[in-house]
């Protein structure tokens, strides 16, 4: 179970709100006007329509002879000039005509989520017009972006979203230089190469949002990004960035969201640097090659909600100051070399935590008592560490848990563990394997609970006992993994009453009797839905 599958609210981005106000104003003004739109602007729209190879039914309302201010997706201003063209998700196909740039009152052009293709006539669209917001995300535009050289004009463009297209090539640096009012640039999910276009902030003092994630950008993160004093959001995940985070980056002290997951960044997270980003709410550096300790100063980031440092080479103990990050919702430190006892951290003050993922580290000691105050936890993954001890009755407080994964530690007393967990009615995934060595699987036939459990894994524990009858009450079970134990007796006939079971592994036990033909009667194994039984569903169980 990957915590990322949980519905956790991610970043939210803010738009210049004065824009919306302006748009609203134009709508209000329009209501009091009876004139028609300007003929020349109407013919620009008709030319745009004629250039499309698929108009998704737009021509039904875009008819010559009618007032184009009333056409679908069109808003005019008080002068009856076209102000907004909002045609997101209209099934438009084909190329777009640069002549839209000649609409001198145009503020917003939103063509997001269509099937438009060819080159994006960026110069034609923005250099000659008044466009403030241009969103062509989720289309099939391709090729490189043109370099633009018209330095003399003041470009009003504030928001440019070209994400989720098929753009290639380097990001044009001169284009960045002329866009001197840019606030947000979203170029994510394309195939751009080359360096981060960091000159943006030098030329555009209010630059606030840069999303370059999911491209093929490379090289090191340029130090002049530190000049971006208004930068709130910097996302560069899933690229080929190398080297350390430059010290200067931390001068960008307005940063709220800093994320570079899945790159080859290295170095240490410096105490003196981290402390400078006091507004940080999301820090995502997972899947890189960072090493060293988690800095103490992380405790000063009072607004931190998500900390993703998983899949790096971090070592040492967690700083106790982590307990000061009282807004933390997600703590993802999986697959590192972190160690020590968690008892020093006061989880009681981290009561907003929803996900804790410490999979594959070297933590030891018992589960800290204070963690039981994190009553909002929906996923707790402690597998593949060196935790020991019995489960505490105080764990009862974690009844919001949907996923509990504690496998491959040294926990003891499976009976106690099961009695505590049975009343966790939200629990869907329970992975306990590799603990409780040589204990006996509870045989209490009156055992109940676990009413929503779908995945149960207790393998590799050398457990004695039988495949107990209480398991037959777990009617929602999809996956049952009891391999590599010393369970004895026969395979019970009730197995085939588990209507949703599609994966059963009871290999490497001491089960006796004939191969139970009953197994061929398991409903999901008989049904067409058995295609679920693939390798992936098995891998999900590993941790
Ligand atoms: C729209 O109507 C005007 C006036 O009747 C005409 O001149 C123009 O050619 C028409 N445009 C198109 C694209 O049909
Ligand atoms: C464009 O429209 C889509 C769909 O309505 C919306 O989600 C998106 O935020 C708009 N883009 C901008 C920049 O406002
Ligand atoms: C495109 O990106 C801009 C700026 O980040 C954002 O405001 C807008 O909502 C995005 N559009 C869509 C369709 O997500
Ligand atoms: C950029 O656009 C994508 C859609 O392609 C959207 O999911 C993402 O949130 C946007 N980034 C920002 C920072 O607004
Ligand atoms: C990336 O862009 C492609 C289209 O080029 C789109 O189908 C896909 O959904 C986008 N991915 C994300 C995560 O937005
Ligand atoms: C930016 O960061 C560097 C390195 O950390 C530092 O030497 C410099 O003084 C900082 N500049 C400003 C303007 O804060
Ligand atoms: C832990 O935090 C809680 C809540 O903030 C507080 O009441 C308690 O005194 C703290 N415990 C210790 C040992 O500091
Ligand atoms: C396991 O816990 C139960 C309940 O607390 C206790 O009665 C039992 O003695 C424990 N078993 C072992 C082997 O310690």
Account of the protein in words:
With 543 residues, the protein is α/β, with parallel strands linked by helices. The protein has a domain at 1-8 and 16-37. Helix content is 12%, strand content 22%. It is built from nine helices and 36 strands. The strands form three sheets. It has a 19-stranded mixed beta sheet, covered by helices on one side. A 15-stranded mixed beta sheet has the order 1-4-6-8-10-12-14-16-18-20-22-24-26-28-30. A two-stranded parallel ribbon has the order 34-36. A hairpin with a 5-residue loop joins strand 2 and strand 3. The longest helix is centred in the N-terminal third of the chain and has 15 residues, at 17-31. It is globular. The chain starts with 16 loop residues before the first helix and ends with a helix. Bound molecules: 2-acetamido-2-deoxy-beta-D-glucopyranose (8 copies). One 2-acetamido-2-deoxy-beta-D-glucopyranose (NAG) is lined by residues 413, 415-416. One 2-acetamido-2-deoxy-beta-D-glucopyranose binds at residues 346, 348-349.
